[in-house]
Structures are given as C-alpha cells and as structure tokens.
Specification:
alpha/beta, putative 2-phosphosulfolactate phosphatase, binds (2R)-3-sulfolactic acid, binds magnesium ion
C-alpha cells in the first residue's frame, strides 16, 4: 500500500521531496473552486501566473486570453474577472467557451508552482472530491496533499477538505503521520461544526468582503466530476479526461 500525507501549508512544501508522488493541491477558498468552475464553464486551459505584471505582459501578447484572479480577495484593476466562482457562474458560457485564462491568486497559484517537481499535480476542492479520489486510487504512487493555506499560515478549510480526501482513500493509501490521521478523524465531523465564521479566519474575511455565496458554493460536496490536472508540457491546467482520454 502506498502512503498518503498532508502538507499543511504551501510554504512547507519546500521541506518535502515531491519527486515520484501524485500531488494534490487544495485551496478551497477559493482558488481550487475557481479553477474547477472555469473548466466547468468551458475554459480550455488555465495558466497559473505568479505576479500581476507577468499576467499583464502575457495578456498583451495574447489579448484573447482572460485575466482572472485576486489580490487581497479582490479583482485587481484591469483584470476581466475576480477569484469568485459565483461571479463566474453568473456570466454567459460564451464568455469562456474554448478560451484560455491567466490565473493569479495569493496562495493557490503559489501552491501549484511549488509542487512542480511532483510526478503529477491534481487540483481538488470540496466540489470534486469524489472524482479526485476515484482517479488517485488508480495511480500506484505515494500521495502528498498540499493545503494552500493563507499567506503562509494554516487554513482549516483546506485541512478539513484534505482530511475528507484521506478518508475516501483509506482503503488504498496508508496515512504516514499524526497530522494526516488527525485530518481524517476531523473530517468525519460535519463541516459546519468545524469550519464556520466563528472558527475560520478566511470564512469570516470573505463574508466581510461580501463573498458569503462563494463560501457556501465552495463548501458544497461532490457537485462536479471534473478533475483538473496541471499539464507540465503546456504549463497550464486542463481537464484530466481531455489529456488522458478517460471517460
Ligand atoms: O489566495 C488565494 O489563492 C485565494 O483563493 C484567496 S481569496 O479567497 O481570493 O481571498
Ligand atoms: Mg485559500
């Protein structure tokens, strides 16, 4: 049986050797959820970009590409859309269909970039947990689940989601440490008992910014069967089934 381990923040990823593992990035609020939603809405490729300047210079070269993301939770000036899944689902699908997007966020894209040495990099959220678990169970490699966290700090919504994933994979993977087991045990509790605006800083911050519906949407379980994967050859996120011709 292969092992499975949760890395509690993106910053801590540098301590781990990710060669030969399947990495799963989780940023429930909100980058993972936004990535999934963009693919649901018909975006073909999502290019994770570190800085706004890089994103603007990419956009100048390819003006058809949509610029999407946030700084401090808010859409930066000059961007087409923010990091809000609810904002995205309220647009007509024609806006996104077949297009490419440039995506930059404070923590989610950082976690992705830090996982680049992994064998494969998947993106998970509450909304696609089951599809991630089904595919990961078929891959005979150790699994490292990277919680994005917030500005280098631990974020409980990512850890709770990671625990749920570990729970679904227990018959195929063995948790390697206490932190991973703790998340698995915690994830059996109802989400609202653990992650809510009293206990979770990021939930309360997003509600304060007027993004309460994003929080509700991001916490819905198993609403999508799309599995986003980072395609190293192209340097972008695509649907897993398009690349590997599954389903
Ligand atoms: O940091 C990130 O990647 C974001 O998802 C954070 S926020 O929810 O847009 O504030
Ligand atoms: Mg987050």
């Amino acid at each position: 049986m292969q092992d499975i381990q949760i890395i509690p923040t993106a910053t801590e990823t540098q301590k781990y050797d990710l060669r030969g593992v399947s990495a799963i990035i989780i940023d429930v609020l909100r980058a993972s959820t936004t990535i999934l939603t963009l693919l649901e809405m018909g975006i073909s490729r999502i290019f994770p970009i570190s800085t706004k300047d890089e994103a603007f210079s990419f956009k100048r070269k390819k003006p058809d590409t949509l610029l999407i993301g946030e700084r401090h939770g808010i859409k930066p000036e000059g961007f087409d859309y923010g990091n809000s899944p609810i904002e995205l689902i309220n647009q007509p699908e024609a806006v996104f269909n077949g297009k490419d997007a440039l995506f930059t966020t404070t923590n989610g894209t950082k976690a992705l970039i830090m996982a680049e040495r992994a064998e494969s990099i998947f993106i998970a959220s509450m909304r696609n947990l089951n599809s991630v678990a089904l595919e990961i169970a078929k891959i005979p490699l150790p699994v490292r689940i990277i919680c994005a966290g917030t500005n280098g700090e631990f974020s409980m919504e990512d850890y709770y989601c990671a625990g749920k994933l570990v729970h679904s994979l227990l018959s195929s993977f063995r948790p390697i440490d206490d932190l991973t087991w703790l998340a698995e045990k915690l994830s059996i509790q109802p989400l609202k008992n653990i992650v809510n605006s009293k206990t979770c800083r990021h939930v309360s911050r997003l509600k304060g910014l007027g993004f309460e519906r994003d929080v509700q949407f991001s916490f819905e379980l198993d609403k999508s069967n799309i599995l986003p994967i980072y395609d190293k050859e192209q340097g972008c996120i695509i649907k897993y089934d398009e690349k590997y011709n599954e389903k």
